[in-house]
Specification:
Length: about 150
């Protein structure tokens, strides 16, 4: 797979890792590149299959350790409902909560950031004496492209 990756994005995560004094190993970087190359969320085993094309010795723990690192650093998100992974739209220069729109037809994932939604959730939790430490908001449906394709076939 030939990956056309934004060099600024790669440089951004390299700089963040250097600032945080964490190691962006070649395997971690490659897994990140594989995730970024796909608009759809990628499973760990899809990533392993792609990684094996350049690193035939790669094993599942290699990918899982890379995914754990990339999530911890905020470079990717886990799509909980499909147990897959997508790149983070801000590469986590700032911690943020995301809302994922997942197309059930083509599997593309769109990441949204809505401070109003996060604020509303926090207010509702506070009313009940609940402190949110993390949340995952995933909405499943049909994207505009797939919806248009269905309408055009009718």
């Amino acid at each position: 797979m030939v990956i056309k990756l934004d060099k600024d994005l790669v440089q951004q995560i390299e700089d963040i890792c250097e600032t945080r004094r964490v190691r962006l190993t070649p395997q971690r970087k490659r897994v990140f590149e594989l995730i970024c190359a796909n608009k759809k969320a990628s499973s760990a085993y899809e990533l392993l299959d792609d990684l094996k094309k350049t690193e035939p010795q790669a094993k599942p723990p290699t990918v899982y350790r890379a995914l754990d690192f990339l999530i911890e650093q905020g470079f990717i998100h886990k799509v909980e409902s499909t147990n897959s992974f997508i790149s983070c739209c801000s590469c986590n220069a700032d911690k943020h909560h995301s809302h994922l729109l997942i197309c059930d037809s083509c599997s593309n994932v769109i990441e949204l950031q809505d401070d109003n939604l996060v604020s509303l959730l926090a207010k509702n939790a506070e009313k009940h004496g609940f402190e949110i430490s993390n949340h995952v908001i995933e909405s499943h449906g049909i994207c505009q492209t797939c919806s248009s394709n269905v309408e055009n076939k009718i």
